[in-house]
Amino acid sequence: MKNIVLIGFMGAGKSRIGKLLAKKLGYKFVDTDEQIKLKEGKSISEIFKDIGEQGFRDIESQVVAHFSQMSNLVISTGGGVPLRKTNMDNLRSNGLIVFLSATPQTVYERVKGNTKRPLLQTEDPFATICKLIKERTPYYSEADLTVETDCRSPLEVVQEIVKFAKLINR
Ligand code: S3P
């Protein structure tokens, strides 16, 4: 069966929903950020500090290419993955792409105080979130399915994705 790939902004709930979804479908769960940390033996913040965002993106693309070749996976991706066309092409070659959307307000509430996301360590994280979401929405909108996560429980979101996956994968 094709992979289910979760894309979307930081704080959209990709990892939490991905784990639940994998359990429900009997698929394995893979989180690209976790794989990058394992591969490099460092945190995401350390990688950004040592080799910069582009260096991080190159490792991210390698990880994406690797797992795109497999099947029966739920892949939770870092928020910047859809920005590279090769990443989306690889993920789409054997996967259904699901965009988990969230408003800037929701994202802000979910991530405020978290220091593990280098791109949000700015003077005005809410303004940064608004700017990045605006820039990235065209990329996220290339997904096969968009599911809103505002005011919805992870279980509700999972149920909607399962319905879609069954329809497409049958
Ligand atoms: C990033 C999102 C992060 C992580 C890195 C960059 C982004 O992952 O990959 O900090 O560019 O949006 P999450 O979306 O899992 O927080």
List keywords for this structure.
170 residues, 5-stranded parallel β-sheet, 56% helix, binds shikimate-3-phosphate
Protein model, in words:
The structure is a single chain. The chain has 170 residues and is α/β, with parallel strands linked by helices. The protein is built from seven helices and five strands; from the N terminus they run E-H-E-H-H-E-H-E-H-H-E-H. A five-stranded parallel beta sheet has the order 2-3-1-4-5. Helix 2 crosses helix 3. The longest helix has 25 residues. The radius of gyration is 15 Å and the shape is globular. It starts with a strand and ends with a helix. The model has no long low-confidence stretch (mean pLDDT 96). The structure holds shikimate-3-phosphate (S3P). The site of shikimate-3-phosphate has 10 residues, from loops.
- What percentage of the residues does DSSP assign to strands (E)? 5-15%
Number of strands: 5
Question: What is the overall number of helices?
Answer: 7
Counting helices, strands and paired strands, the structural category is alpha/beta
Radius of gyration: 15 Å
- Overall geometry: globular
Give the helix level as a range of percent.
55-70%
Biggest sheet: strand arrangement: 2-3-1-4-5
Q: Average pLDDT, to the nearest integer? A: 96
The profile of the biggest β sheet is: 5 strands, parallel
Q: Bound small molecules, which ones?
A: shikimate-3-phosphate
Question: Low-confidence parts lasting 5 or more residues at pLDDT below 50?
Answer: none
